[in-house]
UniProtKB/TrEMBL annotation, chain A:
The keyword Ribonucleoprotein applies. It comes from Westerdykella ornata. Belongs to the universal ribosomal protein uS8 family. InterPro entries: Ribosomal_uS8 (IPR000630), Ribosomal_uS8_sf (IPR035987). This is Ribosomal protein S8. GO terms for biological process: translation. Residues 108-120 have a biased composition (Low complexity). The keyword Repeat does not apply. Residues 121-140 have a biased composition (Polar residues).
From TrEMBL, chain B:
The keyword Transport does not apply. It is found in: Mitochondrion. It comes from the Eukaryota. Residues 21-49 are annotated as: Disordered. GO terms for biological process: translation. Residues 271-334 form the S5 DRBM domain. It comes from Westerdykella ornata. This is Small ribosomal subunit protein uS5m. Belongs to the universal ribosomal protein uS5 family. GO terms for molecular function: RNA binding; structural constituent of ribosome.
Amino acid sequence: MSLVNLAHVCSHLQNASKARLAVTSIPVSKLHVKLMLGLQREGFLSSLTLGGPTPPKPFLLQAQPSPEHLDNMADLLREQPWLAYPVADRKQPRAVRALLQMQTTTNGGADEAAGEPGAESTTTKISASQLPSINTSSPLTRPGDASEVHVPLNPAKRRLWLGLKYYQNEPVLKHMKLVSKPTRRIWLTSEDLGKITRTRESAFVKGLTHPGECMFVTTDRGILEARECVERRIGGMALCRVW
Amino acid sequence: MSACRSARCLLSKATAAAGSPLGLSKGTSKRTFHSSSPRPARKRRPHYPSIKASDLKILNEDAQTLLPKYSDAETQLLSNRYTPSQLAAIKAAESVIDPRDVLLQGSQRTDPWRLPYHSDLIEVDKIIDHAEKLDVRDTIPQGKKNVRLANAVERDAAISKIATENLAKLYPGGLPDGQLTPKQQDELEQAVEGAMMQASLDPRAIYTSNNKAELAALADPRYSVVLPDLPRLDSRLAKATRRLSSEEQEDPRQKRMLQYLGWDKSKLRQIRTKTLVVHGVVNQTRMGKIRSMYYLTIAGNGDGLLGVGEGKSVEPEEGRKQSVMAAIRNMRPVPRYENRTIYGTLEKKIGATKVLLYSRPPGFGLRVQHLIFELARAAGLQDLSAKTPRSRNKMNVIKATWEALTSQKLPDEIARGRGKKLVDVRKVYYGGSVH
């Protein structure tokens, strides 16, 4: 769990939102993915996609399913509802299966706005033409759909693509800062977190005084927002603060 | 000037030139001895506002329509209600007041000291008004005027006499006799004491005179020098200062700004402005240095509006006016939490200046440096603390604070940006009686 990389991610996201980018990519790691999922849950990010060196197709450029196709998919799902859930191919290595699992869950969150039941379900198969990458497609989707993303088999080439959000010409995520540093980790109890979320300083961590400020904490239950930790009475290591 | 021309034609008037023996052209006027154009005669201002005939006509027509004379039918109706003498009084009163004056200057008084009746104030009311002033020399009948200090015997006699008079006013039916209740006894003692006090302060107890009329005049307030004169409404000063609102001199710059803002003057009067930075600046040109004054002014209504304006001019007053107008024009809303403090911590950096503003609990006060204090007061913030950890350049501190205060993000906006729903539960619990 390298906080150096997380620090790079933090400053990269600040720079990308200053440059008003729509999508940006960060290196893939379990910590990054979980933190970005937390950011997406708090509404800082619009989408989260595992991909290669090229960005995924923007939603507006993706092929939109025709109404008949949607009807067909709905009928199919009524009869075989298990098609909505991803089924990893047994032939694939375990790591790839896990990645695809993650990918589909994140896409599920991102594509809620699309409102298509078929797009959420993906099964995997390695096509002969694109051997170095994993082609994610399902019997329900057609070529050019949102779920058809090529993930390189080489983990070093994988990137996590993030959709940034803007509201009234201002970035939604403007500041992102580490709390724990690579040389000094900070662990907080739930009492500390309670004080911090009530804008008071505790354990040498300043309170969340900026309007709409969030802090992410890594706990044994995953990466959670500080207020959620207080609710669940969990402590953990503070990662970063976002506002 | 040609040497052939005589001095006479130079000094003669233009009208005379036509018939002059030299036969000068008709347009030749009296020449001036300097090259600059002559100054026109001083524009004289009339002592009274000049009213155009058309305006006067409109006024007369308005007076006719808005305040018409009683018609026969109306007089008939009035006569049912009032006696002939009352009717005559009403008509006389109506005729006294010019309806044009009512239109131009008339307004109903609403203050608590207004008179309980409508009057043209011609007659002196004995209760409300001061008595008319009298002059001793004119009104006291002839006789020797010899006022002198009273000696002890005369003084005692005068005091007892005046006290008796005063007591007689208090008890017209004579002093109460027989067995008195303690309360009555107390009242009587107080009355006697008051009468004695008044008598000892009366000028008749200190001075005395053989002339009885003169002695009476001493106690008469109408002869008092201290009594103020009745205000003379027909004085020239009052006339000169009385102006209609339409005649008021208007600053063209202010007028343009009011049009720009869509405000009226009364709203402008509520704006508080303060010049916080003044210094001289120099522009180096090939002609030399041109010095001018720089002004930075803030404007606020003390209720969530704040503006900062700059002005620069060679003329100091011009520069100040520029900055004031710019400040009022630049006013922007400052979002305030509970109308007293800011929404969370704010940060703003301009140049090398960084300003940190912190929201604070109720009753904390404005514990900030003087420039930020002025801004917060003008914006109507009451609880605030601030830090200026880096440069404290006055101009930049003001600008950074203003930017930070006016560009706050509201919690609702943040929630909408993140796609969340935010509900202020205090509005539910306290029946909406929160800010």
